[in-house]
């Protein structure tokens, strides 16, 4: 079975997580510093090949009332382009509160602010992917 990849797409970084082979758990892989669309997609393609990824889940930031704002539209466009470039199914997953949840987890684990900055996007990607995996297994 192929793995799934979860992405937390931001302006400056992309948090990346992958599932185990059974699709039960998500682990953080890395935080990509965004440079250009070509370089970002090239790095994602390397990770897709390395981890034998079969599907991708992109976090979709919705407004609290469920509508999609400018950030959400950027993520939808990113997901469409990724699907075309990678020829893989790409799913959008409501990521409301995942970054806040990741931040709370890191604070409760007593992680310093500087360290939190480095891992927050990767943690958010883990929460996005884990949420999707849990919903699929229900």
UniProtKB/TrEMBL annotation:
It is found in: Cytoplasm. The keyword Nucleotidyltransferase does not apply. Residues 2-102 form the YqgF/RNase H-like domain. SMART domains: YqgFc. Coiled coil: none annotated. It is an enzyme of class 3 (hydrolase). It comes from the Bacteria. It holds the Pfam family RuvX. The keyword S-adenosyl-L-methionine does not apply. Keywords: Cytoplasm, Hydrolase, Nuclease, Ribosome biogenesis. Its EC number is 3.1.-.-. InterPro entries: RNaseH-like_sf (IPR012337), YqgF (IPR005227), YqgF/RNaseH-like_dom (IPR006641), YqgF/RNaseH-like_dom_sf (IPR037027). Transmembrane segments: none annotated. Belongs to the YqgF HJR family. Could be a nuclease involved in processing of the 5'-end of pre-16S rRNA. HAMAP family: Nuclease_YqgF. This is Putative pre-16S rRNA nuclease.
